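task queued by scheduler; priority normal; single chain, no ligands, no partner chains; default sampling; output format set to C-alpha coordinates
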Amino acid sequence: MIRKAVLPVAGLGTRCLPASKAIPKEMITIVDRPVIQYVVEEAVAAGIRDIVLVTHSSKSAIENHFDKHFELEATLEAKGKHDLLEAVRGIVPKDVNIISVRQPEPLGLGHAVLCARPVIGDDEPFAVLLPDVLVDDYGLAHNDLAGMIAAFDATGLSQLMVEEVPWERVHQYGIVAPEQAVPAAGESAPLAGMVEKPAREAAPSNLAVIGRYVLPGHIFPLLAETPPGAGNEIQLTDAIDTLRAADGVDAWRMRGQTFDCGNPLGYLEATLAYGSRHPEIGADFRELITRHARSE
Protein backbone atom coordinates (compact mmCIF):
# COMPACT_ATOMS: atom_id res chain seq x y z
CA MET A 1 0.00 0.00 0.00
CA ILE A 2 1.37 3.39 -0.99
CA ARG A 3 1.48 5.70 2.02
CA LYS A 4 3.48 8.71 0.80
CA ALA A 5 2.73 11.50 -1.64
CA VAL A 6 4.75 14.41 -2.98
CA LEU A 7 3.04 17.76 -3.61
CA PRO A 8 5.28 20.24 -5.47
CA VAL A 9 4.21 23.68 -4.24
CA ALA A 10 7.34 25.77 -4.81
CA GLY A 11 6.24 27.43 -8.07
CA LEU A 12 5.61 31.17 -8.31
CA GLY A 13 2.09 30.78 -9.67
CA THR A 14 2.44 33.22 -12.54
CA ARG A 15 -0.76 31.95 -14.18
CA CYS A 16 -2.68 33.18 -11.14
CA LEU A 17 -1.28 36.71 -11.05
CA PRO A 18 -2.12 39.19 -9.64
CA ALA A 19 -3.97 37.04 -7.06
CA SER A 20 -0.79 35.07 -6.32
CA LYS A 21 1.49 38.10 -5.91
CA ALA A 22 1.24 38.14 -2.11
CA ILE A 23 -0.25 34.73 -1.28
CA PRO A 24 0.67 31.27 -2.61
CA LYS A 25 -1.54 30.19 -5.50
CA GLU A 26 -2.24 27.00 -3.53
CA MET A 27 -3.86 29.09 -0.79
CA ILE A 28 -6.44 30.71 -3.08
CA THR A 29 -9.80 29.51 -1.80
CA ILE A 30 -12.50 27.45 -3.48
CA VAL A 31 -15.66 28.22 -1.44
CA ASP A 32 -14.39 27.78 2.14
CA ARG A 33 -10.96 26.18 1.93
CA PRO A 34 -7.76 26.65 -0.05
CA VAL A 35 -7.03 24.62 -3.16
CA ILE A 36 -4.17 22.78 -1.42
CA GLN A 37 -6.53 21.42 1.23
CA TYR A 38 -8.71 19.74 -1.40
CA VAL A 39 -5.61 18.07 -2.86
CA VAL A 40 -4.46 16.86 0.56
CA GLU A 41 -7.97 15.53 1.25
CA GLU A 42 -7.84 13.64 -2.06
CA ALA A 43 -4.54 12.02 -1.06
CA VAL A 44 -5.79 11.13 2.43
CA ALA A 45 -8.97 9.57 0.99
CA ALA A 46 -6.74 7.34 -1.16
CA GLY A 47 -4.85 6.03 1.88
CA ILE A 48 -1.88 8.42 1.89
CA ARG A 49 -0.58 9.20 5.36
CA ASP A 50 2.68 11.09 4.72
CA ILE A 51 2.31 14.30 2.67
CA VAL A 52 5.62 15.75 1.49
CA LEU A 53 5.34 19.40 0.50
CA VAL A 54 8.19 20.50 -1.77
CA THR A 55 8.07 24.17 -1.02
CA HIS A 56 9.83 27.54 -1.15
CA SER A 57 10.67 30.20 1.42
CA SER A 58 7.80 32.37 0.15
CA LYS A 59 5.22 29.61 0.78
CA SER A 60 5.17 29.54 4.59
CA ALA A 61 1.41 30.18 4.53
CA ILE A 62 0.89 26.63 3.25
CA GLU A 63 2.86 25.11 6.12
CA ASN A 64 1.06 27.38 8.59
CA HIS A 65 -2.32 26.26 7.25
CA PHE A 66 -1.58 22.63 8.11
CA ASP A 67 0.11 23.43 11.43
CA LYS A 68 -1.62 23.66 14.80
CA HIS A 69 -2.73 27.20 15.71
CA PHE A 70 -2.95 27.13 19.49
CA GLU A 71 -4.11 30.72 19.99
CA LEU A 72 -6.89 30.44 17.41
CA GLU A 73 -8.09 27.12 18.81
CA ALA A 74 -8.07 28.46 22.38
CA THR A 75 -10.08 31.52 21.30
CA LEU A 76 -12.68 29.46 19.45
CA GLU A 77 -13.03 27.09 22.41
CA ALA A 78 -13.40 29.96 24.87
CA LYS A 79 -16.13 31.52 22.73
CA GLY A 80 -17.98 28.23 22.35
CA LYS A 81 -17.53 28.14 18.57
CA HIS A 82 -17.20 24.38 18.52
CA ASP A 83 -18.12 23.83 14.87
CA LEU A 84 -15.36 26.17 13.73
CA LEU A 85 -12.97 24.61 16.24
CA GLU A 86 -13.59 21.15 14.82
CA ALA A 87 -13.18 22.47 11.28
CA VAL A 88 -9.78 23.94 12.16
CA ARG A 89 -8.64 20.85 14.05
CA GLY A 90 -9.84 18.57 11.26
CA ILE A 91 -7.75 20.16 8.49
CA VAL A 92 -5.19 17.38 8.99
CA PRO A 93 -6.33 14.03 10.44
CA LYS A 94 -4.35 12.92 13.48
CA ASP A 95 -2.81 9.97 11.65
CA VAL A 96 -1.52 12.11 8.75
CA ASN A 97 1.92 13.73 8.71
CA ILE A 98 2.72 16.94 6.81
CA ILE A 99 6.44 17.09 5.97
CA SER A 100 8.12 20.06 4.27
CA VAL A 101 11.28 20.10 2.20
CA ARG A 102 12.70 23.04 0.26
CA GLN A 103 13.38 23.32 -3.45
CA PRO A 104 16.30 25.77 -3.35
CA GLU A 105 15.96 26.93 -6.96
CA PRO A 106 13.34 26.51 -9.72
CA LEU A 107 14.88 23.76 -11.85
CA GLY A 108 11.68 22.08 -13.00
CA LEU A 109 9.05 19.59 -11.84
CA GLY A 110 11.48 16.68 -12.04
CA HIS A 111 13.88 18.52 -9.75
CA ALA A 112 11.05 19.36 -7.33
CA VAL A 113 10.13 15.68 -7.05
CA LEU A 114 13.81 14.79 -6.64
CA CYS A 115 13.96 17.12 -3.61
CA ALA A 116 11.67 14.64 -1.80
CA ARG A 117 14.14 11.78 -2.24
CA PRO A 118 15.58 11.97 1.32
CA VAL A 119 12.07 11.53 2.74
CA ILE A 120 10.74 8.90 0.31
CA GLY A 121 13.86 6.84 -0.37
CA ASP A 122 14.71 4.78 -3.45
CA ASP A 123 12.86 1.63 -2.39
CA GLU A 124 9.34 2.86 -1.67
CA PRO A 125 6.67 3.74 -4.25
CA PHE A 126 4.88 7.07 -3.90
CA ALA A 127 2.30 9.34 -5.49
CA VAL A 128 2.78 12.79 -6.99
CA LEU A 129 -0.11 15.27 -7.00
CA LEU A 130 0.15 18.63 -8.75
CA PRO A 131 -1.91 21.13 -6.75
CA ASP A 132 -2.96 23.27 -9.74
CA VAL A 133 -5.49 20.61 -10.67
CA LEU A 134 -8.45 19.52 -8.56
CA VAL A 135 -9.66 15.99 -9.30
CA ASP A 136 -13.32 15.83 -8.30
CA ASP A 137 -14.52 12.39 -7.16
CA TYR A 138 -18.13 13.38 -6.51
CA GLY A 139 -20.42 10.37 -6.80
CA LEU A 140 -17.61 7.80 -6.95
CA ALA A 141 -17.21 4.97 -4.41
CA HIS A 142 -13.47 5.74 -4.24
CA ASN A 143 -11.42 8.40 -5.93
CA ASP A 144 -9.25 8.01 -9.01
CA LEU A 145 -6.02 8.24 -7.05
CA ALA A 146 -7.11 5.21 -5.02
CA GLY A 147 -7.80 3.43 -8.31
CA MET A 148 -4.32 4.27 -9.59
CA ILE A 149 -2.75 2.99 -6.39
CA ALA A 150 -4.72 -0.26 -6.66
CA ALA A 151 -3.56 -0.64 -10.28
CA PHE A 152 0.05 -0.10 -9.20
CA ASP A 153 -0.32 -2.66 -6.42
CA ALA A 154 -1.72 -5.17 -8.91
CA THR A 155 0.81 -4.68 -11.71
CA GLY A 156 3.88 -3.04 -10.17
CA LEU A 157 3.85 -0.57 -13.08
CA SER A 158 3.92 3.21 -12.79
CA GLN A 159 0.58 4.89 -13.39
CA LEU A 160 -0.15 8.25 -15.05
CA MET A 161 -3.65 9.65 -14.68
CA VAL A 162 -5.05 10.72 -18.04
CA GLU A 163 -8.20 12.49 -19.15
CA GLU A 164 -9.86 12.71 -22.54
CA VAL A 165 -9.66 16.28 -23.86
CA PRO A 166 -11.13 17.85 -27.01
CA TRP A 167 -8.94 17.21 -30.05
CA GLU A 168 -8.70 20.92 -30.78
CA ARG A 169 -6.96 21.37 -27.40
CA VAL A 170 -4.39 18.55 -27.52
CA HIS A 171 -1.66 21.10 -28.29
CA GLN A 172 -2.08 22.43 -24.73
CA TYR A 173 -1.20 19.16 -22.97
CA GLY A 174 1.21 16.30 -22.63
CA ILE A 175 -0.49 13.55 -24.66
CA VAL A 176 0.03 9.80 -24.20
CA ALA A 177 0.32 7.19 -26.92
CA PRO A 178 -1.44 3.97 -25.82
CA GLU A 179 0.42 0.83 -26.83
CA GLN A 180 -2.77 -0.73 -28.14
CA ALA A 181 -6.35 0.07 -27.14
CA VAL A 182 -7.35 3.25 -25.31
CA PRO A 183 -8.22 2.27 -21.72
CA ALA A 184 -11.80 2.53 -20.54
CA ALA A 185 -12.60 4.89 -17.68
CA GLY A 186 -11.42 3.36 -14.42
CA GLU A 187 -8.88 1.14 -16.13
CA SER A 188 -5.22 1.37 -17.15
CA ALA A 189 -3.35 0.32 -20.28
CA PRO A 190 0.33 0.25 -21.33
CA LEU A 191 1.90 3.28 -22.96
CA ALA A 192 4.04 3.34 -26.09
CA GLY A 193 5.19 6.89 -25.36
CA MET A 194 4.29 10.48 -24.58
CA VAL A 195 4.30 13.63 -26.69
CA GLU A 196 4.48 17.12 -25.18
CA LYS A 197 1.92 19.55 -26.67
CA PRO A 198 1.62 17.98 -30.14
CA ALA A 199 -0.20 19.52 -33.08
CA ARG A 200 -3.62 17.98 -33.59
CA GLU A 201 -2.55 16.08 -36.70
CA ALA A 202 0.47 14.65 -34.87
CA ALA A 203 -1.26 13.69 -31.61
CA PRO A 204 -1.33 9.91 -31.00
CA SER A 205 -4.53 10.22 -28.92
CA ASN A 206 -6.56 12.82 -27.08
CA LEU A 207 -5.63 11.46 -23.63
CA ALA A 208 -3.86 14.16 -21.63
CA VAL A 209 -1.72 13.72 -18.52
CA ILE A 210 -3.42 15.78 -15.82
CA GLY A 211 -1.08 15.89 -12.83
CA ARG A 212 -1.41 12.63 -10.88
CA TYR A 213 1.33 9.98 -10.88
CA VAL A 214 2.12 6.79 -8.99
CA LEU A 215 5.83 6.00 -9.28
CA PRO A 216 8.41 3.57 -7.90
CA GLY A 217 11.18 4.85 -5.66
CA HIS A 218 13.79 3.87 -8.22
CA ILE A 219 12.72 6.80 -10.38
CA PHE A 220 14.87 8.99 -8.12
CA PRO A 221 18.20 7.75 -9.55
CA LEU A 222 16.76 8.36 -13.02
CA LEU A 223 15.76 11.90 -12.08
CA ALA A 224 19.24 12.51 -10.65
CA GLU A 225 20.72 11.58 -14.03
CA THR A 226 18.12 13.34 -16.20
CA PRO A 227 19.65 16.34 -18.01
CA PRO A 228 17.71 19.59 -18.40
CA GLY A 229 15.11 19.34 -21.16
CA ALA A 230 12.32 21.67 -22.26
CA GLY A 231 12.72 25.14 -20.79
CA ASN A 232 16.18 24.12 -19.58
CA GLU A 233 14.47 22.38 -16.66
CA ILE A 234 14.63 18.82 -15.35
CA GLN A 235 11.40 17.32 -16.65
CA LEU A 236 9.54 14.60 -14.78
CA THR A 237 8.17 13.30 -18.10
CA ASP A 238 11.72 12.66 -19.38
CA ALA A 239 12.49 10.42 -16.39
CA ILE A 240 9.12 8.68 -16.75
CA ASP A 241 9.86 7.98 -20.41
CA THR A 242 13.18 6.41 -19.41
CA LEU A 243 11.27 4.33 -16.87
CA ARG A 244 8.75 3.35 -19.54
CA ALA A 245 11.48 2.08 -21.86
CA ALA A 246 12.97 -0.04 -19.08
CA ASP A 247 9.97 -1.29 -17.10
CA GLY A 248 6.78 -0.11 -18.79
CA VAL A 249 4.32 2.59 -17.68
CA ASP A 250 0.53 2.49 -17.69
CA ALA A 251 -2.04 5.22 -18.26
CA TRP A 252 -4.96 5.24 -15.81
CA ARG A 253 -8.03 6.79 -17.40
CA MET A 254 -9.85 8.76 -14.79
CA ARG A 255 -13.58 8.61 -14.04
CA GLY A 256 -14.01 11.92 -12.20
CA GLN A 257 -13.74 15.49 -13.39
CA THR A 258 -10.79 17.88 -13.32
CA PHE A 259 -10.63 21.61 -12.71
CA ASP A 260 -7.51 23.52 -13.68
CA CYS A 261 -7.34 26.09 -10.89
CA GLY A 262 -4.23 27.64 -12.41
CA ASN A 263 -6.37 29.69 -14.77
CA PRO A 264 -9.34 31.97 -13.96
CA LEU A 265 -11.97 30.02 -15.91
CA GLY A 266 -10.99 26.70 -14.33
CA TYR A 267 -11.03 28.34 -10.91
CA LEU A 268 -14.53 29.71 -11.49
CA GLU A 269 -15.73 26.34 -12.76
CA ALA A 270 -14.41 24.66 -9.61
CA THR A 271 -16.13 27.28 -7.46
CA LEU A 272 -19.43 26.58 -9.21
CA ALA A 273 -19.10 22.81 -8.82
CA TYR A 274 -18.03 22.76 -5.18
CA GLY A 275 -20.20 25.69 -4.15
CA SER A 276 -23.37 24.24 -5.70
CA ARG A 277 -23.21 21.11 -3.56
CA HIS A 278 -21.78 22.62 -0.36
CA PRO A 279 -23.75 21.13 2.55
CA GLU A 280 -24.43 24.49 4.20
CA ILE A 281 -24.60 27.10 1.45
CA GLY A 282 -25.19 24.96 -1.66
CA ALA A 283 -28.93 25.62 -1.97
CA ASP A 284 -28.52 29.37 -1.48
CA PHE A 285 -25.62 29.42 -3.93
CA ARG A 286 -27.65 27.66 -6.61
CA GLU A 287 -30.47 30.15 -6.06
CA LEU A 288 -27.98 32.99 -6.36
CA ILE A 289 -26.76 31.64 -9.70
CA THR A 290 -30.33 31.26 -10.96
CA ARG A 291 -31.28 34.74 -9.83
CA HIS A 292 -28.20 36.23 -11.48
CA ALA A 293 -28.92 34.37 -14.74
CA ARG A 294 -32.47 35.72 -14.81
CA SER A 295 -31.24 39.27 -14.38
CA GLU A 296 -28.92 39.08 -17.40
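post-processing summary
- The first strand starts at residue 4 and ends at 8.
- The domain at 4-262 is CATH 3.90.550.10 (Spore Coat Polysaccharide Biosynthesis Protein SpsA; Chain A).
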